[in-house]
TrEMBL record:
The lineage of its organism: Bacteria, Bacillati, Bacillota, Bacilli, Bacillales. InterPro entries: FAD/NAD-bd_sf. This is Uncharacterized protein.
Length: 73
């Protein structure tokens, strides 16, 4: 989600800056954005996962889905 947030933030800043030195027209290539996102979400190295767990950060594998506004499974 971080890359989606960053893309949305880019558009927001662009809109605010038009006429203040920014004249460009940002575009999102969804395929490239998804490919970029996958570079840091597809696989977490074992050592990184172990370090997260050692620091009391739980890791989960699989696909999550929302079952309500406040719960996911």
């Amino acid at each position: 989600m971080v890359c989606y947030y960053g893309a949305a933030e880019l558009f927001d800043w662009q809109e605010r800056m038009i006429g203040n030195g920014i004249d460009g027209n940002a575009k999102i290539n969804c395929s490239d954005l998804m490919e970029f996102k996958r570079t840091f979400t597809n696989h977490v190295p074992d050592k990184k996962e172990q370090a997260l767990n050692k620091n009391a950060i739980d890791t989960y594998h699989g696909k999550a889905s929302f079952i309500s506004d406040n719960q996911f499974s």
